Amino acid sequence: MVIGSMFLGQRLRALTTTAAFWALAWLLVLSPLVAYRWHDARTNFFEHRPPALALLGALLLAPIVWGAFSGVAFAGLTILFGRTVGWHGLRLPVVAAWGFASGLLAPLVLGALWAFGGLTADMVSGWLGLALASGTINGCLAAGSLAIAKGRPSVSRHLDAAT
C-alpha cells in the first residue's frame, strides 16, 4: 500500500512540476503581449489615472493558467500513453503530437463555452488562430521537455518512475 501511494505521489509530482514549468514558459512566451496590452490599457483607457494593479494581475494570470492547464494535459497524456514504453522509449514526433493535442484542449473547452454562449463569425478566426498557436507552442514545449529529460539521467529516472 505504501508503494502504491508513493507511485501516486510521483505521478502527482510529475503533474504539478510539468504544470509549473509550462506555466512559466507560457508566461515568458506571452510576456510581450501582456506588456503590450498593459501599455494599451494605460494609454487608451486610463488616460487620467493609472490602471489598477488588478488588471496587470489578470493579464499575467491568463498565460499562467493556460500554461498550467496545458502542462497538466500533456503530463496526463504522457502518463496515460507513455507508461508502457518508459520515458526513454518515447519518440520525439509522438511526444510533440501529444503536446500539440494538449495545446488544443484549452481552446476546445473555450470554443465549446463560446458556442453555447453564441459564437459569432468574428470570433471563429481568432479562436482558430489561438488553437493553432497553443498547439504549436505546446508541441515545442513537449519536444523540449523530452529532450531535457533524455539528456539528464536524474530527470529521466524520476520520470520513468512516475510513468
Molecular structure report:
By secondary structure, the protein is mostly helical. It is 86% helix and 0% strand. It is built from five helices and no strands. Helix 1 crosses helix 5. It is globular.
Quick summary of this structure?
Helix content is 86%, strand content 0%. The protein contains five helices and no strands. Mean pLDDT is 77; it is low at 1-6.
Helices and strands in order:
Layout: H1 2-45, H2 53-82, H3 92-116, H4 121-151, H5 153-162
Helix pairs in contact: 1-2, 1-5, 2-3, 3-4, 4-5
- Total strand segments: 0
Number of domains: 1
Helix and strand content put the structural class at mainly alpha
SSE string: HHHHH
| Mean pLDDT level | 77
Judging from the principal axes of the Cα atoms, what is the shape? Answer: globular
Features:
163 residues, mainly alpha, globular, disordered N terminus
